[in-house]
Design brief:
Structural class of chain A: alpha/beta
Helix content of chain A: 40-55%
Oligomer: heterodimer
Shape of chain B: rod-shaped
Radius of gyration of chain B: 50 Å
Distance between the termini of chain A: 23 Å
CATH topology of the largest domain in chain B: Beta-Lactamase
Strand order of the largest sheet of chain B: 2-1-5-4-3
Number of strands of chain B: 12
Number of domains of chain B: 3
Distance between the termini of chain B: 58 Å
Order of helices and strands of chain A: EHEHEHEHEHEEEEHEHHEE
Shape of chain A: elongated
Number of helices of chain B: 8
Strand content of chain A: 15-25%
Strand order of the largest sheet of chain A: 2-1-3-4-5
Number of strands of chain A: 12
Number of helices of chain A: 8
Radius of gyration of chain A: 19 Å
Amino acid sequence: MKILVIEDDREAAAYLVKGLEESGYVVDHAATGTDGMFLASSQPYDALVVDRMLPGMDGLTIVETLRRQGRTMPVLILSAMGEVDDRVMGLKAGGDDYLAKPYAFAELLARLEAVLRRGQSGQPTTRLIVGDLEMDLLSRTVKRRGQVIDLLPREFRLLECLMRHAGQVVTRTMLLEKVWDYHFDPQTNVIDVHVSRLRQKIDRGFDKPLLNTVRGAGYCLREPA
Amino acid sequence: MSPRNALRTTTFRLALAYLAIFVASSATLLGFIYWATSGAIDRESEQIIEAELTGLREQYRQWGIVGLVRVIEERSKGDRADEMRYIVVGPRFERVTGNLSVWPPELRDRRGLVEFPLSVRVGDRSEKRQTMAMAFDLPNGFRLLVGRDTKERSEFRERVIGAIAWSLALTLAFGLMGGYWVSRHLMRRVDAINRTSGEIRAGDLQQRVPVTGKGDEFDQLALNLNAMLDQIERLMGGMRQVTNNIAHDMRTPLNRLRARLEVTLIEKPDEARYREAIQETIDEADRLIATFNAMLSIAEAESGSKAESLARTELAPLVDHVAELYEPLAEEKGLTLTVAHAGVAVARADRHLMSQAVANLLDNAIKYAPAPGAITVRTADTPLGAEITVTDTGPGIPPESREAVLARFVRLEQSRSTPGNGLGLSLVQAVAKMHGAELTLADNAPGLAVTLRFPPIRDARPPAK
């Protein structure tokens, strides 16, 4: 997987490149908007991580220009401006996701994985399967090892989100955004409580837990090794 | 303010322009009156002369020259003798009768109505009198002249012209004086405002524009400016306080963070200890970020930049949605969370900020209410406006502290040991202000009851999509 990071802050860029390389990506870095635009339009990348305010060319302009050129690679926009309106602007310009600074690297990695995954399956799914856990999106039923699990609507949405990103880390902020459509920091561990309730329903009584907590980052639903 | 300045004001220029229009229209009006009245007097004289001539001619036809002479002699002694002039002459202009001594030379060859100065005897002096006269040829070479003294008419004309001139002059004088006075008066008020704003710009934020109490536009302006200044002063005071609080509240965790890293370095730990220290550091940093985010949200809500994002919103679904998020948390703590709706409460609201405000209220309620306890969220459609009320059975907030807890970073608990940053209610307050809503904290006996009351929506349009 080859990623292009367009970020003008040297330290932030070094930290991003290092983190991404350690997570197994091949990373190129551009320090100005113009360099970034040149690289992005001349070489194939699997995804772009673009800072919004850049010297030379604005991050949103880069994304818009690339989209007009018909380039569809996923783009994750980074910005110091994280209000809902700014997010909407970033997403309208053609970004796939938007992350406000300061961010946790785990959050960035989780979101990057999520947008990379998006590019792969174009088919609308009606069935999600992780190990022996099955979700039927049409009849809205969940079964584990053939045994029906009763979920409340919000638990269903939560599980759906986790299953769609199976194998990836999903952060609390992502869950709050994707399941509840809220873009704020709850002061308490409200998401943890929801996840622990869901865990009780899907993992209790089964020897191998599917829903794992990733310390300092979030949660990950995966088939036990 | 110097008088020269008053003459240069817009008000004075407007007064001058108005005065010019006024003078022109009154001059036209007075001119018309003059023309109409003096014309009427002229026509009256003509009619009198013509009527007199016709009467005398009639006398002559009936009684001959003897009858005419008799009538004229009578008339010359009558009560209008002073005003009317008569003379009858023979073929060679020799006087036969009348109150004139000679046939006026101007009328030897002219017929019709003629106006000329005539010498008349007044007492023992001869005086030139403007006279309007008409001559008539009688058969047998006699001539008859009937005239009328027009002194009265000229006098009237002079008086009217004088009156017109005076009234125009007075109008002009009063207009100029009035314009000058109004300009000076208005300028004084504007000057006061200019002086105050100058002093404020020079750094004295406490200055206020004087209000006269007349309730006029200038008072309105002054009140508005003063309200604006109050707000600016309050905001600046708030900012100063926030800076102090940040210094305190951010410095403490930053210090802790630094100390932890330092100690970890000193104690020569193993890898596991390093990892633990780093993890703790990250958690601390996360808390700091959360505090910053909360402050940014408050700043954003306070700046009111989202005013255009307010849309007609039904409060019940919004509250249900937030309550759903918090319900497991409450249950986990042994609290019951109840949602109740009375009527369809609708307000102009920003969904995100309002959700966050309700979330903060629930968060607080859950944080402070001991188990077992009850938390309720209610929406109600009241005649005063839509309401959201969150109540809990916790310790509540004593009345004297209720104002204080709305300020940033204020926490009643001095030790600041429970998690939180003291920004929760500040955000609720900022969001309420942005929505024009009223935030009240009351006693739930026991516990706290927080109510957000929105201003009623005037237009009854269906909700926009």
